[in-house]
Amino acid sequence: MRFHHRTTRLRAIRALLATGLLLAAAPTALAVDAARPETPAPADEVKLYCETIRQGAVDARAAWQARALQEMEARLERRFAELTAQKREFEAWLARREEFLKKAEDSVVGIYSRMNTESAAAQLAAMDRDTASAIIAKLPPRQAGAILNEMEPGRAAMLARTVAGSARK
């Protein structure tokens, strides 16, 4: 029995020591808890976080928008330059075309003015109305009259009306 009594005594001493250590540590733990700032509620934490990062987020968004605007402006300027170059190229092509057509037109009128009236009438009768009218309008009046005289009367009248209408405009 004696052995059992000794074991019980050691257990009691250990329990008292553990309790004493806990009581000695308790004021320290309470002091640490008191030194900590009061933690805000979760909703307050979110609000505090949002307020903390708000200005940085506003600045980042403004910087992003400024970069996006600069990129769009650069693309717009490049496209404008491309279109301006295309416009100049088209205008040059149009000027060359107009010059060619004028030379060709003068040349064609010269050819018809030297043709036999019967042959010229047959060819002009086969052409579309606008082209035939343009050629007749540029021919000297005597030759134009001789060519129209050789044509079928309905076609000659239509061409004469077109020439007269274009002379008024």
From TrEMBL:
<dbReference type="InterPro" id="IPR006668">
    <property type="entry name" value="Mg_transptr_MgtE_intracell_dom"/>
</dbReference>
<feature type="domain" description="Magnesium transporter MgtE intracellular">
    <location>
        <begin position="106"/>
        <end position="161"/>
    </location>
</feature>
<feature type="signal peptide">
    <location>
        <begin position="1"/>
        <end position="31"/>
    </location>
</feature>
<protein>
    <submittedName>
        <fullName>MotE family protein</fullName>
    </submittedName>
</protein>
<dbReference type="Pfam" id="PF03448">
    <property type="entry name" value="MgtE_N"/>
</dbReference>
<keyword id="KW-0732">Signal</keyword>
